[in-house]
Design a protein that fits this description.
By secondary structure, the protein is of the alpha/beta class. The chain has helices at residues 3-9, 24-35, 78-92, 106-122, 137-146; strands at 14-17, 56-59, 65-66, 74-75, 99-100, 131-134, 150-153.
Length: 171
């Protein structure tokens, strides 16, 4: 396939923002180029503020921070989502739609609960509670609380343990 044929034929229907990328600017430029066209191609006609978004954007990990051995929180994958939304608003004047999956979203908890219940039935086990053990109040604990699970906050990782519990998303 020639470069000209590729420019005409290659169209994207979905972009997944998953985790951090080492080539952030190059990756962001490609996503920007795809999302600002009417047809989801790299060289397609430009999309205007009233044109529908034809490419689905999905994020699989909405954590703004995560922890490592470094003493300070590290910027997480949600930073890319925030950057892309701000970039579109600042340069084109419109927002992009992003579907988010993972913690704390209901879809993720429903999927896990259904899988565990299915396995429990096969093994003749009765489940009375679901527990979420996590270090991130904004994703782990908020997700558990909003989905009726018992939440347990560990005082390591993202949660620094300087307070007894998180005031906005208590376990």
């Amino acid at each position: 396939m020639s470069m000209e044929e590729l420019k005409k034929e290659l169209k994207f229907s979905c972009v997944i923002l998953n985790g951090a990328t080492h080539n952030l600017l190059s990756f962001s430029q490609v996503v920007y180029d795809i999302l600002r066209t009417k047809d989801g191609s790299l060289y397609g006609p430009p999309r205007g503020p009233n044109d529908p978004q034809t490419v689905t954007v999905i994020t699989l990990n909405p954590d703004l921070f995560y922890s490592t051995t470094h003493p300070m929180e590290r910027i997480g994958p949600q930073a890319l989502q925030i950057m892309m939304q701000a970039l579109f608003k600042a340069t084109l004047g419109y927002e992009i739609e992003i579907e988010s999956y993972g913690k704390p979203y209901k879809f993720n908890f429903d999927f896990v609960e259904e899988a565990l219940r299915s396995r429990a039935v096969r093994q003749n086990i009765k489940i009375s509670n679901f527990y979420m053990i996590g270090d991130n109040p904004k994703s782990d604990i908020a997700g558990a609380n909003s989905n009726g699970w018992v939440s347990i906050l560990v005082k390591t990782g993202v949660f620094d343990g300087k307070t007894k519990n998180d005031s906005q998303n208590p376990a």
